[in-house]
């Protein structure tokens, strides 16, 4: 353990910028340890990476705030946000996250299995100051020896914080986690609490919409359930049952807003978000069409019986999928990876894969139409495979024939119109079903050699916002993988892909689903390697986004 950081920085003042590398290692500070994990090669290089480690006795957080994984996640999420606020918008960068509370590398609470129980570790980036290509030692001393200690004292010690605010944040995360765990035993796929605020401020601002026009959610009586939570006590709201759920209504009345809230319900949210008690099962996956994506040996014959090219649709590959084939592949891939609930919005779906009405059936004979619409397969998907579907559908009444429940959104108010929909479904339309069985999913075995994170001999995993991931020599377009909330999550997805290969989970013999099972178990046991060995900020991803990114690798090869 090194000492005398301030004196060392004064000695370096005016030296060549590259001398900053001499700061590498751990330094003893007042009440914490500062470790320089990676230096900064020059003023234009990525910021240096540092870790602040505060021992449990100095941090002082009561055991009740950190005695479960959910509460540790909540506490870490709170501390990261406080630390980022005190650090400000200058040269110190702390990944505070957005509205979601995720397991992040930026702040970790020790659980006793690896780190000391109750110890706090914050990982951050620092732009080391310079005058041209010379070290500005005095400015560096201000940052490392005054700003960072101030961050530690004001935000990483329980005695310095608002205890009620800390508890509220941690309790909110624990309640959401408990609510999500209660869904499956109740036969529900999602829950939307009464009073929830679902609309967001804009497409680029995920904070809740405010103002007199905001309509808090209120459950229809037919779907109302009560749940007892550890901290909030009894809460009421809409429980979305398993099966096929149709969300209908006029344009701009809140259908997609409700679906997006359910989509985001796989993550916990900060207090004040409006969706704190809007949750969905962990295995909920949003599906959409994605023109141009690559598909590697996916069995899509349930949807596509044949192609003019003669390609085998039971072993289908393409470098340029159409809207319908991309959506078919994404749906099959999601089920292969273990999805239990699918979310589909007609606005982003391939129309010809979703519906084929009676008039079109009469005009185009089935032997001339290779596509089987989803409306004829959605029932079997639940009946035979246990996979539920929640659909936004305002343009086709044919889904009334197959829906278990129908929710109407009218001026942002939800109502149960299931019985009315069933009455209308009894009136013949002349349409006939083109299939009734969704076949077993064919599991694929990836070749691990085709999942290579190296570029020029070095690991290269870097997010480009939320839309792209640099992975080895490739740039993956993940725009259509909609459940990636921020840059750190995209980065974590890339690291998890790398981990699948490095740990031997993808070994050329296991199926993708089997490899993801091993990854899940490893991440559930602490996510240590994913969150601590890498220098960039990241968050722990779900298996579903890892699978989606893998499936979009243009280098991916399937052995069988």
Give me the secondary-structure category: alpha+beta
Helix content range: 25-40%
Low-confidence stretches: none
The number of helical elements comes to: 15
Mean pLDDT: 96
Biggest sheet, in brief?
Answer: 6 strands, antiparallel
| Rg from Cα | 26 Å
**CA distance, first residue to last residue:** 52 Å
What best-fitting shape do the alpha-carbon axes yield? globular
Number of strands: 29
Beta-strand residue fraction:
15-25%
How is the topology of this model organized?
Layout: H1 5-12, E1 25-29, E2 32-38, E3 48-54, H2 56-59, H3 69-87, E4 92-93, E5 100-101, E6 107-109, E7 120-126, E8 130-131, E9 134-135, H4 137-155, H5 163-183, E10 188-193, E11 200-202, E12 205-208, E13 224-229, E14 233-241, E15 244-249, H6 255-264, E16 268-269, E17 278-280, E18 284-287, E19 295-298, E20 316-318, H7 323-336, E21 341-345, H8 351-354, H9 358-363, H10 378-385, E22 388-392, E23 405-410, E24 413-416, H11 418-425, E25 454-455, E26 458-459, E27 461-464, E28 468-471, E29 474-477, H12 487-502, H13 512-524, H14 528-532, H15 543-551
Parallel strand pairs: 15-22, 15-23, 18-21, 21-22
Antiparallel strand pairs: 1-2, 2-3, 3-7, 4-7, 5-16, 6-7, 8-9, 10-14, 10-17, 11-12, 13-14, 19-20, 23-24, 25-26, 27-28, 28-29
């Amino acid at each position: 353990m090194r000492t005398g950081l301030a004196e060392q920085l004064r000695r370096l003042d005016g030296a060549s910028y590259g001398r900053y590398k001499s700061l590498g290692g751990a330094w003893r500070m007042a009440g914490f340890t500062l470790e320089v994990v990676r230096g900064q090669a020059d003023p234009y290089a990525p910021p240096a990476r540092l870790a602040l480690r505060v021992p449990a006795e100095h941090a002082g957080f009561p055991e009740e705030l950190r005695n479960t994984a959910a509460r540790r996640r909540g506490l870490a999420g709170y501390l990261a946000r406080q630390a980022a606020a005190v650090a400000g918008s200058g040269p110190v960068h702390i990944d505070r996250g957005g509205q979601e509370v995720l397991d992040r590398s930026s702040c970790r609470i020790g659980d006793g299995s690896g780190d000391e129980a109750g110890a706090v570790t914050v990982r951050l980036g620092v732009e080391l100051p310079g005058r041209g290509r010379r070290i500005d030692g005095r400015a560096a001393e201000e940052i490392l020896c005054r700003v960072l200690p101030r961050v530690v004292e004001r935000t990483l010690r329980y005695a310095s914080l608002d205890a009620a605010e800390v508890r509220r944040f941690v309790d909110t995360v624990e309640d959401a986690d408990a609510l999500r765990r209660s869904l499956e035993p109740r036969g529900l796929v999602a829950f939307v609490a009464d009073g929830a605020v679902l609309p967001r401020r804009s497409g680029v601002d995920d904070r809740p919409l405010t103002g007199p026009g905001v309509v808090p959610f209120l459950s229809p009586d037919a779907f109302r359930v009560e749940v007892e939570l550890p901290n909030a006590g009894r809460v009421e709201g809409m429980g979305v049952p398993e099966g096929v759920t149709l969300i209908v209504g006029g344009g701009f009345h809140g259908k997609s807003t409700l679906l997006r809230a359910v989509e985001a319900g796989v993550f916990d949210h900060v207090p004040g978000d409006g969706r704190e008690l809007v949750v969905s099962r962990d295995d909920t996956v949003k599906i959409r069409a994605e023109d141009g994506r690559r598909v590697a040996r996916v069995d899509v014959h349930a949807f596509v019986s044949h192609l003019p090219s003669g390609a085998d649709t039971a072993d289908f590959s393409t470098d340029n999928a159409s809207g319908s084939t991309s959506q078919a592949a994404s749906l099959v891939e999601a089920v292969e990876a273990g999805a239990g609930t699918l979310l589909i919005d007609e606005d982003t779906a391939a129309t010809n894969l979703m519906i084929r009405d009676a008039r079109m059936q009469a005009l185009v004979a089935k032997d001339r139409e290779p596509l089987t619409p989803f409306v004829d397969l959605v029932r079997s998907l639940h009946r035979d495979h246990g996979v539920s579907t929640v659909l936004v559908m305002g343009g086709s009444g044919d889904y009334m024939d197959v829906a278990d429940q129908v929710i109407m959104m009218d001026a942002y108010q939800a109502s149960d119109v299931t019985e009315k929909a069933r009455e209308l479904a009894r009136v013949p339309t002349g349409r006939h079903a083109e299939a009734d069985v969704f076949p077993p999913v064919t599991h694929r075995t990836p070749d691990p050699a085709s999942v290579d994170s190296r570029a020029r001999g070095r690991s290269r995993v870097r997010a480009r916002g939320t839309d792209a991931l640099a992975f080895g020599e490739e740039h993956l377009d993940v725009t259509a993988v909609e459940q990636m909330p921020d840059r750190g999550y995209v980065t974590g997805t890339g690291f998890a892909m790398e981990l699948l290969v490095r740990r031997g989970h993808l070994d050329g013999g296991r199926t993708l689903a089997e490899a993801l099972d091993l990854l899940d178990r490893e991440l559930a046991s602490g996510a240590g390697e994913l969150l601590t060995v890498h220098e960039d900020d990241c968050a722990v991803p779900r298996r579903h986004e890892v699978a989606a990114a893998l499936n979009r690798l243009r280098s991916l090869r399937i052995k069988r």
